[in-house]
Amino acid sequence: MSAKKSAQKESLLALANVESFYGPIMAIRGVSLSVPPHGMTAVLGANGAGKTTILKTISGIMEPAKGQILFQGEAIGGADPSFVARQGIAHVPEGREVFPFLSVRDNLRMGAYIRRDKEAIGGDLERVHAYFPILKRRADQPAGHLSGGEQQMLAIARGLMARPKLLLLDEPSLGLSPLLMKEIFDIIRRVNGEEGVAILLVEQNAPMALRTARYGYVLENGRIVLDDSCERLSRHADIRDFYLGGGEVGERGERRWKRRKSWG
Amino acid sequence: MTSWTDRLFAAIWRGLILFAALGVLAPFLLYATGAMDAMRLGFYIQQLVSGAAIGCVYAMVALGIVLIYKATETINFAQGDLLMVGAFLSFTTIGIFGLPYALGALLAVAAAFLFGILCERAVIRPLVGEPAFSIVMVTIGLGFFLRALVGLTPGWGTDTFTIPTPFTDHTVQLGPAIISQNHAAIILLTMALCGALYLFFAKTKIGVAMQAVSENQLAAHYMGIPVKNLFTLIWGLSAAVAGVAGLLLAPIAFVHSQMGFIVFKALPAAVLGGFASLPGAIVGGLIVGIAEALAGFYLPQGFKDVAAYALLLIVLIVKPEGIFGESGMKKV
Question: Is B215 close to A99, i.e. CB distance below 8 A?
Fold first, then answer.
């Protein structure tokens, strides 16, 4: 058995050569990636690289045209979203997507829709209130009245209410102030560290993602062009130049526009 | 920034509400000042109550339309025909089988619920993903089909029937007015149904999930809510509400295969209420019913039939989003 195969077997989630289409347009091409149990993995990439498509394909909103998606060794590619959710995958979508007219409490209750254990749900409500105290204070307000940052917190908390084994986080930093972003990422780190929830994080904000996750994949035009531990990725010259804002341009005496990506 | 036309229309709207409220209360004021005798006040109250009763039926049909619209964004033109089927089901259990009224009613409403589920599975589900317009056309076709089906069913046919109820031919005295127990029963049962629906949508998990689906279908998918199954349930619920409406309408309007055209009174009621609001549908139905009854009694012949549409025109001009509608809340 090859090393790659055994890695796939041990991982919580493994995508092998997955391709998805928006109508005739291929959005992701031959994507293979894996998330270890209790691990935190990031997918970096610019706008339109296909990051969201990967998550939508995992959670069953989009059907993969090709390839295999294994969750805990079971194929879930093309399954119904409610089936995928019941297997233990919670998706926190891009742009929050809260239920605007439902109260914050009911939003959280809907996060636990797939669960039957009423008492444990009550306990988990306390738990997410401990992470996000503001949600307790706003429990009776319609979610649409919350600020953008609070809605993001609600979306993450709602995802946690499913008590998932794997949390798919789509652009949690979108539209947040730097301070709020730091707060949210601290909580994401705690959720991963304290509760052992595995996280697949999709981010445009590369510095934040590389500091938070352990392993990273770089996605360009629907293809994975590079993958490595986040530590090594953040030292990678191309990543520094193209994703981390080129801190060493002056030192090297090179101009950004002159450099070519080594994988491009 | 509100423009002066917005403010003008808002002022006209407030004026209209004041005018309508004064108009409805005027006879009571006249009676209090001695300008109207007790008998004429009694007539007035009777019109008010019978209008409210028929308005409750409109309201329930409108409620069914709004339920389906909110969840699936299609308008079910067959809602009136679901009422008709519901009425025939009640006629079958109570009139033909001779079951006690309460038991027969329960069975008929349960059967209507299952019938709604059947309609969704057989007719609507295969069209998921098609343009809303196609689905609306199909609901119109479904209405034609149901009318023909009922006409062809042995024992039902195209004749008119009545359902014996424990309320028929009884009256209650309400001040100077004599109220038919049929009308009182319709109003009380509608209130009970609204209360039950409110509790269902606010308190039960599946009710909240139905709201969630209508607010953000994509997010509902992400939560693992089985969206398609909820659509089926909403059709069932909507048909059950129509079944209750048919059951209540039967003693005051006869059971026949064309009674589904009541939808043309329920649609203006739904639009009047704002179309995406459940309380709006109830209030809209009551307004249409009461306006019709008063127009029929106090205005020359013919006004009764156009009352609903005249009201609708006025409201659409002055407050296009409807009484309970919220403009600009629709996400694009």
Answer: yes
Alpha carbon dihedral A78, A80, A83, A88, in 10-degree steps, equals: 60
Residues contacting residue B124 through CB under 8 Å, at least 6 positions apart:
B72, B74, B135, B138, B139, B231, B235
Every domain of chain B and the residues it spans: 37-318
| Predicted TM-score (pTM) above 0.80 | yes
- pLDDT tens, residue by residue, A221-241: 889 999 999 999 888 888 887
Q: d(Cα B131, Cα B214) in Å, to the nearest integer?
A: 17
Name the residue type at position B44.
Y
For residue A115, give Cα distances in angstroms to A24, A120, A128, A169: 37, 9, 16, 20
The answer to whether B151 and B258 have CB atoms below 8 angstroms apart is no
For residue B78, the SS3 value is: coil
pLDDT digits (tens, 9 = 90+) for B201-234: 999 999 999 999 999 999 999 999 999 999 999 9
Architecture of domain B37-318: Orthogonal Bundle (1.10)
Q: Is A79 on the interface with B (CB under 8 A)?
A: no
Beta carbons of B224 and A93 less than 8 Å apart? no
Look up the ipTM and state it: 0.85
Which of A61, A101, A111 lies closest to B221 in CB terms? A61
Alpha carbon distance B307, A87 (integer Å): 56
Residue of chain A with shortest Cα separation from B223: A111
User: Which one-letter DSSP state was computed for residue A198?
Assistant: E
Strand partners for A215: A41, A229
Q: Which two tokens stand for residue A21?
A: 């289409």
B155 exposure class (CB count in 10 Å sphere: 0-12, 13-18, 19+): exposed
CA pair distance A79, A83, nearest whole angstrom: 7
Alpha carbon A17 to chain centroid distance? Answer: 19
Closest CA to A57 of A16, A98, A11: A16
Q: What are phi and psi of A29, to 5 degrees?
A: -120, 115
